[in-house]
Amino acid sequence: MDPSSNSVYFSLEELKDLESAYESGGMEKVVILIQEKLNKLKSAELHIAVTGESGAGKSTFINAMRGLRSIDEGAAKIGITETTMVPTQYKHPSFPEVCFWDLPGVGTTTFPVKDYLREMKFQQYDFFIIISRGRFTENYAKLAQEIKTLGKHFYFVRSQIDNDLRALEIEGRNAERKTELTKIRNACVGCLREAGISQPTVFLISSFQVNEFDFSALWATLINNVDNMKKDIFLKSLPNIALEIVEWKRDQLKKRLWMLATVSGTVRAEGVSGAEGTEAVSGAMAGDLACDLRKLITAIEEMCTCLGLDDASLQRLANVARKPVEVLKAEVKTPLTGEINNECMKTMLQCSNFKASVDMELPINLVQIIASIFQTVSSAGITYKLLSNALTELVKNAKNVVKAAFGTD
């Protein structure tokens, strides 16, 4: 399933509010409601708890989820002994609203299960990753049952799969890889069923090979089980380790283009009197356009970061792929990742062309409302087309970077 397929930013009630606002107050009221939704998207937070027994690889997993190595600034501390003594928060380096919590190992003398469930304050987390490096024990089942009583989702991850396969090679047991992975998965599932988990799903991963094994399947499952607002921010935070992740991000970003176009390009130039950040632009359509160039520039910059085309993201991906960052940067051939000023944006607007019946990829219950807006306000349509073209160009570059990083065809 496409992790972005079911994401709708507006509830049915909010859609009715949009329609009523347009009928009673025109675009001014509509823009206010849409801007409020965009602000909520920016302020939403996601808190992910990573738990399990001591030494299972929780800290390494958190680093992998954020595209970091243990030697990078801000990385979770890794050690052969228990290094996490209190719940420790690690924010994503580019999207700090996505927070991972490294919880102390469960079942140790310091944190026996009966105290662990109370002291970790499980209610504050959105969902839980339960990690094991071997068989899942009774402690894991107790954790899962406690999480279930809170109405939260939990996911079982079997870590260090690369070490298991390497050990088989050293022993000269040249068994077929898929067969061995199936054996490991079945053993984990069997233990969890014996411990009282009726239909467990186990993801096999290596935190040092995030483009292998079940990492993509894990991400897809996590995204499909969070609400729409948090789905949006979690998708943005994923490292681009596969082409499908870039496609998920593209589809998610498409869903907000009409909102960005509406708030940045729905005022005709003749109705503007010195509005801050808003300038008249000669367009290809009749009359002049009034667009908030600052908002358009910010929108493109945010798309660049989401698609991993900023310098920091490229460096993190190069580290994961073990490639010189220059190799990845060489695949970024669009000027949109550089500094975009007002004059550059005006040129892009003048080159934009828009027809309301074309390229409007909207939920069916939005089409009538927004199509009416875009047909009435020429600036909204042109800015939509500009952002759509920019997204297409950025996605193309992001895919080229993934191919260079991992040799993906």
**Which percent range fits the helix content?**
40-55%
Return the structural class.
Answer: alpha/beta
Order of adjacent strands in the largest pleated sheet:
2-3-1-4-5-6
Radius of gyration: 24 Å
Can you tell me the overall shape? globular
Number of helices: 16
What's the quick description here?
The chain is an alpha/beta fold.
Question: Which helices and strands occur, and which strands form pairs?
Answer:
Layout: H1 12-25, H2 27-43, E1 46-52, H3 58-65, E2 88-91, E3 98-102, H4 113-119, E4 127-132, H5 138-149, E5 153-158, H6 161-170, H7 177-194, E6 202-204, H8 215-223, H9 228-237, H10 243-264, E7 267-268, E8 278-282, E9 288-292, H11 293-306, H12 311-321, H13 325-329, H14 342-351, H15 367-376, H16 378-406
Parallel strand pairs: 1-3, 1-4, 4-5, 5-6
Antiparallel strand pairs: 2-3, 7-9, 8-9
Question: Care to describe what's here?
Answer:
This protein is α/β, with parallel strands linked by helices. It folds into two domains: 12-42 and 242-406, no CATH class; 45-237, 3-Layer(aba) Sandwich (Rossmann fold). Helices cover 50% and strands 11% of the residues. The protein contains 16 helices and nine strands. It has helices at 12-25, 27-43, 58-65, 113-119, 138-149, 161-170, 177-194, 215-223, 228-237, 243-264, 293-306, 311-321, 325-329, 342-351, 367-376, 378-406; strands at 46-52, 88-91, 98-102, 127-132, 153-158, 202-204, 267-268, 278-282, 288-292. Strands 2-3-1-4-5-6 form a six-stranded mixed β-sheet, with helices on both faces. A three-stranded antiparallel β-sheet has the order 7-9-8. It is globular.
